[in-house]
Design a protein that fits this description.
The chain is α/β, with parallel strands linked by helices. The chain has helices at about 15-25, 45-55, 75-85, 105-115, 130-135, 160-165, 185-200, 225-230, 255-265, 275-285, 290-310, 335-345, 370-385, and strands at about 35, 95-100, 120-125, 140-145, 170-175, 200-205, 230-235, 250-255, 325-330, 350, 350, 365. The protein has a 7-stranded mixed beta sheet, sandwiched between helices. Strand 5 (about 170-175), helix 7 and strand 6 form a beta-alpha-beta unit. It binds pyridoxal-5'-phosphate. Pyridoxal-5'-phosphate binds near residues 104, 130, 174 and 206.
Length: about 400
């Protein structure tokens, strides 16, 4: 055996497992529609692609992008401007921002920068499955904090036992939330800052869906008073600009934690390809309208799917943010069983809620990041094959 013990804790990556299942079915000639993964099929804005092409021809950009280890100054300035324009947050580009290969990298580097072996780390349950492996890699112990329908899928901070709060080193949260589609409020963010300050808990506020919001206010954790004293916000160009494949994002906020993340990063990789950084600047500076347009598209798909499923008496709350719908499964099924049932009957792949934590049991997650024709076809299949299922 060559591999380290730490790998034994890491479960199979959900979307790899689903991808294998999809590929196997496709090989058998099944016309599978995946509504599981949140990966926009719509293209990146044209000016961003043009900027990449233009800057990719310059040999200056073919070299290691390490001159400015935290990301180009121009990119960090564009991030600071974007945060100010979109969220009213002021950031010092020289010490409060580090550019990343997506927010996923930030989740991982945050753990290595903040968590020591044996530390307890709070994570909402249900929550993004990427957090726990990052915490394990750092030797920490994830502690799930329930975030259920009873509290609008927000963690009830007052219910966290004092013993746990006292021992917790950090807290991972994400609103607009994957998988539930729930959003945070200003009041909640203030409460979070107060709670974490009182227990000296570092916050990793993972906010890649900050722009995908249908109801309520577009919010940054960093807009809460005192947030920068205790935490960072991770963000990303993946979702607002359909740039999941480009791998560009950022960690912003508390200067000490940002520096810690930058130290981990500088000793792990050699930064983001310069041409992608230039393209990122273009997106941040010039593509607010594009994000609004995508929001309109997701809103339309969301309403289309919700009203179709209503015909089956499948009542699904409209998510306030993200491009996901968090749907309760009918009684008699677990999440995994219902996903299997839908796959067998309709050749549609959904994400089982249980993959997001024990409190995700009883739900499945739909993603709206498919082409309109595929969504229409999926709706047709669901209406046809689920008509005898009781959703009461
Ligand atoms: C909550 C959450 N965090 C992080 C990520 C990773 O995003 P990125 O492409 O910015 O690495 C995702 C992707 O789906 C996500 O849902």
């Amino acid at each position: 055996m060559f591999t380290a013990q730490r790998l034994e804790k890491i479960p199979p990556y959900l979307f790899m497992t689903l991808r294998n299942k999809i590929n196997e079915a496709k090989a058998r000639g099944v016309k599978v529609i995946s509504l599981a993964i949140g990966d926009p099929v719509d293209p990146t804005p044209t000016p961003v692609i043009d900027e990449l092409c233009k800057t990719a021809y310059d040999p200056e950009n073919h070299r290691y992008p390490t001159d400015e280890e935290w990301g180009m100054q121009a990119l960090r300035k564009a991030i600071a401007n974007w945060y100010h324009r979109r969220y009213g947050v002021t950031l010092d580009y020289s010490k409060e921002i580090v550019a990343l290969i997506g927010s996923k990298e930030g989740c991982h580097h945050f753990a290595l920068a903040v968590v020591d072996p044996g530390d307890k780390v709070l994570v909402t349950d249900p929550g993004y499955p990427g957090y726990k492996p990052s915490i394990w890699f750092a030797g920490g112990e994830p502690v799930p904090v329930p975030a259920t329908a009873k509290t609008n899928f927000l963690p009830a901070l007052a219910d966290i036992p004092t013993e746990i709060a006292k021992q917790a080193k950090a807290f991972y949260l994400n609103y607009p939330n994957n998988p539930t589609g729930a959003i945070a409020t200003k009041e909640f963010l203030n409460e979070l800052v107060e709670f974490c300050k009182s227990w000296n808990i570092a916050v990793c506020y993972d906010n890649p869906y900050s722009e995908v919001i249908f109801e309520g206010e577009r919010l940054s954790f960093l807009s809460a008073e005192g947030a920068k004293d205790i935490g960072v916000e991770l963000n990303s160009l993946s979702k607002p600009f359909n740039m999941t494949g480009w791998r560009i994002g950022m960690a912003c906020g508390n200067a000490e934690i940002v520096k810690g993340i930058a130290t981990v990063k500088a000793n792990t990789d050699s930064g983001i390809f310069n041409a992608i950084q230039y393209a990122g600047i273009k997106a941040l500076n010039d593509c607010d309208d594009f994000t609004e347009k995508m929001l309109g598209i997701y809103r339309h798909r969301r309403e289309k799917l919700l009203s179709a499923l209503k015909k089956l008496n499948w009542e699904i709350p409209a998510s306030k943010g993200t491009f996901y719908l968090w749907a309760p499964v009918p009684s008699g099924f677990t999440s995994a069983q219902f996903c299997e049932f839908i796959f067998e009957k309709c050749a549609i792949v959904l994400a089982p809620g249980s993959a997001y934590g024990q409190y995700g049991e009883g739900y499945v997650r739909f993603s709206l990041t498919v082409k309109e024709e595929q969504l229409d076809e999926a709706i047709e299949r669901l209406l046809q094959h689920l008509k005898d299922v009781s959703f009461k």
